[in-house]
Amino acid sequence: MSKTLPIQRRLRRPGGRSFPGRKAFVLSFIFLWLGFAFAANAQTQKVTGRVVDSKGDPVPGVTVKVQNTTRVSTTDAEGRYSIDVPDLQTTLVFSSIGYTEQRQALGGQTALNITLQDDQQALDDVVVVGYGTQLKKDLTGAVSVVKAQDVKKRQATTVAESLQGLASGIKVRGGGQPGSEAQIQIRGLKNLSGTNPLYVIDGLVSNANRDFNPADIESIQILKDASAAAIYGSRAANGVIIITTRKGKEGPLMVEFTGRSSIQTMPRYELAGTEEFSRINFMAYDNANVPRQNLDLGVNTDWQDVAFRTGNVQDYNMSFSGGSSTGNYLVSGGYFGNKGTVISTGFDRLSFRVNTQGKKGIFTIGENFSVTNSKSDEMSGNPIIDVIRMLPTIPVYNAANPGGYGYGDEKRGRTFGTNPLAIANLEDRSNENLRLRGNLFGELQILKSLKYRLNLGYETSRDHYKYLKKDGFWTLNQAFDPAIANENRAESETKLIENTLTFTKQFGKHSLNVIAGQSYQQDTYAQIWGTKRNLLPNPSGGYYDVLDQGNEGLTGGFRNRTDIISYFGRAEYNYADKYLINGIIRRDGVSRFGPEYKFGNFPSLSAAWRISNEEFYKVKWMNDLKLRASYGTLGSSNIGPYDYIALINTFSTIALGQGQGAQQGATQVKLANRDLRWEELVQQNYGFDAAFLNNKLTVSAEYFIAKTKDVLLEYPLLLSTGNDGGNPRVNGVTLGNRGFELTAGYANNDKPFKYNVTANVTTLRNKVLDLGYNKNKTYVGNTVTEVGQPIGMWYVLQTDGLFQNQAEIDNYRNANGTVIQPSAKPGDIRYKDNNGDGQITNSDKIVVGSPWPKYEVGLNIGLSYKNFEFSMDWFGSFGSTVFNGPRSVIERFDDNSNYPAGVQPWTPQNPNTSTPRAYYASTLNSRGDTDRWLESGSFARMKYVALSYNLPADFVKKAGFSRAQISISGQNLITLTKYTGLDPEFSNGSIFEKGYDFGAYPNLRTVSVGLQFGF
């Protein structure tokens, strides 16, 4: 048996956990303290000073380094620094982004103040453009650069939500549902898939959905035209958003913390209470000569109080970063928690990131790695519609019903509504996702002008969906279903290999940059699911919800794989900083198409002329003027992985033989199109960039023309063709887009009161050029899409006021004297007989409006004075016509839904109203295909407002920090609109009914308090 030395002894506390012996701990601490004390006092001298810019303002965050050593310090918020030096004859090196590096010998001084000079080249924005970077001033294509700080300051789940109004040509629509992902379009609808743009994160083709932490962003570039995006070829038709995540910087360890706590509230309808509801409901039944319901007038339920609550968001992020001249690192972690404003909804996300990079001689290696785990609690149905369908006379609870919840009955409250509390408690839905994403890269500087880069990317996601339905009902006449458990597990993988060579050379006034590369990406996705019914309850009041319980088991699953291989090249030529040419070619091959159509070529060419650098240019008040033009092609293969292959059903059986035994068979159930080929987007772009008044005022404008040919769509076929497995894919539609974008900004930082203002405006017109297969029109819901017009125009009956008396009804005739609405009564809606045939039919429908805004604008304002900062962002959308779906429910009177508070149906005593008479069980005045429900969708909204205060440097230093800021902010606090729904800024997933508010989750009013500090 070995003997334990005293210093190795372990003391034990109750529970068996051990910790180092007390003597060992004390000795170790003494030795460590003495070592530090000795090191700190070994032949060092302290030097202090202050660093300012050319205007005398302090420069925080400047790296102060003792030359040829590892001793480093940084300046605080007031520009002050303190550093220990080995002797007073050494040299200090001062460096900071945007300033020229400065070296200064101490010459025996212990106090040294420095004035840094602006580095004009460094002040030019560096833009990531795919497989490389460019100076913003040298761009020839349409690229929008969004400041990371502008994105991160907003309280949002995803990156897309925060981009609204920050760049021209970008249309974003989101909502307040926890974990929801915003829809984003770049320069209009280019196909019928509704696909979001391509996201490229640190060189990895990925997505920036709800499992990506926006706090990790360093920079965002939006590639809008073909010349900018063509380097990504077949996946860039919907635009490209390039995100670069944060990296460590040269200097000592920097610790940064940001925390924000937010309160969210849901906008609400003004709905009738029991007294008002029952009065109008009785009126509707009386007008229809139908016996009244026996409403429970002793109940007055506010279903919005039942379903809605105050939500909150907790958003915390912390990072550790640093580096040296040979490498850098960043480690960050974050937590995002969102308790939804609707009961039984929420979203949580944990994120962790490690970015490192090191350099040795001509070799550089680095990685970007992140892991996130997110979980959303979801609710079935649509609570926005539920709360307006449910009657105030129905109680929340009813012990006589299975499950114990109230949802009406045939005699006392007939309704299609759903009790939102019942569905929240009787159903449990959750969706959990674990995602790992990252890339490993290596660079070899073969020659001074030639660099090789290998990029290896990998992303994997593990999804787990769980559903439990308990015994009980939540709506009237609901079919019985036993307790059910369902689980769905899926996994996806993306593997990426890229090789690039970059050649950069300066020949006098000639500058050349050439990139050539190869890329291979493989995507796989697999899913399995299982369901069990008749689960057993457990003693605690729940259920045994694992899939080995219950009976009537069902299982299923599938597996997909897609491969894409690419070859690409780009050449950039610059002569004397006056003439710039950029050419790109990419060849992509994808497994989604048949053997003859797998490959596509996507070239582009762009050029720019900087007139302001010509000798004849003498305009002193205009500092820069550059004209740009581009032409290029992009592609899309956004279909299923096997759509060109016939779908076979292997579950079919047939009786064969003398004994008529069942034999296994296989039948083709979906027609296949082996001639599927690429969508092709051809785009032109013409623009200019200008700077005025010593670069304080900048203006950028774009005009673009885009045409998408061979758009992929599912073509409807009759079942009589034998096609019952879904509509086959075809190339059949041609779409056009054209628009104008203008961005202008003014900044003045010459005085203590600093300010900047940026405004952008976008106009866009989309048009269907060809529907294919000799089609001229297609109808979806209340819309028509026809050649020569935008997608999804409103196609409805027109209303023309109300009939006030029988004489008006009798006199409403066509040219032949036929009474058009002979069955109408005073108070009914008069419809326009547009075709003059003497009756109201679908043939009278006409196009009455467009769901697409005529223009959208963004306005961003920033002010600062001493320690105070103020920021405000506005966004506006104007000219669209939208369909108010919830209003078509609560103002119809023909069924049992609630009504708006204060609504005044027509009566002989109340003829001066636009609301028709209340009439039960008839769609005479409530049909959903009329312009009665169409409203202006124009709005202007204050998206964000914030006031921040930077704590004084002396106070912060006493607390041990180098900087600290507190802030209060609000989002969606003010909305100017005539729209009567909850939110004019709604989104839906329908391509053809973009302006239809189905009862979408509104954007929430949010008030936040934040804290940031670093040391």
Automatic annotation (TrEMBL):
Keyword match Transport: yes
Keyword vocabulary terms for this entry: Cell outer membrane, Membrane, Receptor, Signal, Transmembrane, Transmembrane beta strand, Transport
Residue ranges constituting the TonB-dependent receptor plug domain according to the UniProt record: 136-240
PROSITE patterns in alphabetical order: TONB_DEPENDENT_REC_3
SUPFAM superfamilies: Carboxypeptidase regulatory domain-like, Porins
Taxonomy, superkingdom: Bacteria
Signal peptide start-end: 1-42
A GO cellular component annotation in the UniProt record: cell outer membrane
UniProt-annotated location(s): Cell outer membrane
Membrane topology, record value: Multi-pass membrane protein
NCBIfam families: OMP_RagA_SusC (TIGR04056), SusC_RagA_signa (TIGR04057)
UniProt family annotation: Belongs to the TonB-dependent receptor family.
The protein, known as: TonB-dependent receptor
